[in-house]
Amino acid sequence: MRKKIVAGNWKMNTTPAEGVELLKGVAALKGEVCSCVNFIVCPPFTHLSEVVKVAKGTGIAVGAQNCAAEAKGAYTGEVSTQMIASLGVEYVILGHSERREYYAETSATLNKKMEQAYANNLTPIYCVGEKLEERESGKYFDVISAQIKEVVYNLSAEQFAKLVVAYEPVWAIGTGKTASAEQAQEIHAFIRKVLAEKFGAAADDTAILYGGSCKPGNAAEIFAKADVDGGLIGGAALVAKDFIAIGKGFAK
Ligand code: PGA
Fold first, then answer.
1. I need a surface site. Which of 22, 81, 131, 247 has the fewest CB within 10 A?
2. For the chain, what is the radius of gyration of the CA atoms?
């Protein structure tokens, strides 16, 4: 049985105090959702310490949105996985398209970040996805396959067993445009096939999340697809009742 996951990527939103309120709101409503759903919230670094404390006992896990590619040292402004993990954080989002696009993250950087994540027992949520022009030119299978092969293929079997993957078509992120459930399923099945070429049957157990304008109104249809195991939610994760409503996309 694959894990069902609904993860919130808060991006650069909320103050720490607002973040704590948001988490409390999610925790208060969580009982309305199937206990089969694993909720994760990924606030900014500044919030992690307090959010982990408040999340304790709620069954909601906490993730970071990024981490340093190095273990420690003279890297002004960076935050290491040791620092993050020491707070009780369990996950880290890596390879988000905004990091790839605005901060020039390459597969080489991401390989180092993955190594750091595993070195400190953080579970990576590794994002892949094509840009609009790559979808329109039909190159998207090649793009996604390369994003997987250049990074995920370097993991050991033991590391791979922990990995969570998120498919986030860049043209659907924050745009209000969502991939159709059929488009999502097509790519999720493709991702699983590419993973299986390297890791065999273990790929059947990998949670693959959909991200990109996932909302209460479309979550159930997308989550119903065979290879979709949940969502990585941006905008809608900033409103507790919407985030919870997305969780309800999995039948109770
Ligand atoms: P969105 O963002 O739900 O606002 O489209 C998703 C993401 O980037 O993780």
1. 131
2. 17
